Amino acid sequence: MRPESVPETVTRRGTRIRLAVGVWGVLVSQVLLYPGVEDIVVTLGGDATVDAGMWFLVAEFAAFVAFASVWGAASDALGRRMSLATAGAFGGAAGYLALAAAPGLGLPFAGILVIRVVGGAATIGAFSLSITALADLAGGNGRNMGAAGIAIGLGAALGSVVGGRLADAAPRYPLYAAAVTLAAVGILFVTIPENGLDVDPPRTGDALDGLRRQPALAVPYAFGFIDRMTAGFFALVGVFYFRTTFGLSAAGAGLALAAFFVPFALLQYPAGLLSDRIGRAIPVIAGSVCYGLGIVAVGVAPTLWLAVAAMVAVGALGALVAPATMALVTDVATAETRGAALGGFNVFGSLGFLTGFLLGGLATSTAGYFVAFLVVGLSEVAIAVVAARAVWRLSDGSDPARASVRPAE
User: Fold this and answer.
1) What is the CATH number of the domain that holds 145?
2) pLDDT of residue 295
3) Residue 278: count of CB within 10 angstroms of its CB
4) Average per-residue pLDDT in the chain?
5) Residue 327 domain boundaries
6) 69 belongs to a structural domain
7) Mean per-residue pLDDT for 170-185?
8) pLDDT digits (tens, 9 = 90+) for 354-365
9) Cβ contacts of residue 47 below 8 Å, gap of 6+?
10) How many domains does the chain have?
């Protein structure tokens, strides 16, 4: 029982901070590998090509797609988030340690990809359930998803900078760092009590049936898919683009990625609060159009500094879209299906990452960087135009499937 002297809002705020730190740690561990992905792949037995890097990243996100909804539905059925998230974090740490040890074991690159799949299946549990636990808190969906968004952005920013420097020092250093980070996340999750979360545990079948009864979730899922596709594109093609076009090292490419992730992180929380006040429609629709055009601007920038400036602008615009989109999921879902709904959102997001890797890699290999940036950027514009009416309908509450936004603290 919570002591009477401790206000509920203080306890809730502390839980929110710890959950956000956990989300941050998962993203740090993941992005540590991105700036030096070419060097890591070569060390693990692959080729120094966009295609090899693509499959290295695709293997992990294929597992994300397969297991995100499984973790979400299981947590809904059991009424427990943090014990499962803890297991996912420790499992992901073991996966990174296995990758670091693989060269000494003589594993072929196909074996490396299998390890990536297993590690990804564990890591998505820590990521998806920590975000779901944030959604379980009272205090406003925009506030909670803003906390998740700023954690994601800051984690990616730190991971890209530190990961690039570690990869320049030794290609396996990012793997060790990722393992330590996820282990620390697992320890943190142990300290978060389940009774601070508003979890109403139905049977797994009930949770999935409830999700199928809410087709309005297709709207934020579609935006999540395209948004994550652009992130996957930058994680693979963006790194190769900055390294080959402007001659940057892994550390330099990490700094270029940070130019996106720092404003993306710092503006997430205020953008989430803004969406609580003005609704989701304007941030999602207007933000997506400008975000897509900004991606094209990165690909046509004639100099490094203009490209970096465009990355900063794209990060700011992405911050406007991301928390509003995640909050729209929790607005639409019922309390009983919130875990499965956010798990589904992460499935579509991971599919978006996969598409970003595949589409970006194939477009770059066949048509060059300009066409790749054009295709991905205009895809973001297209989804905003096509789905604008549906977003307005959900945002103004006229859709009966939309649940009320919970009041802010």
Assistant:
1) 1.20.1250.20
2) 95
3) 13
4) 83
5) 13-395
6) yes
7) 96
8) 898 889 888 888
9) 41
10) 1
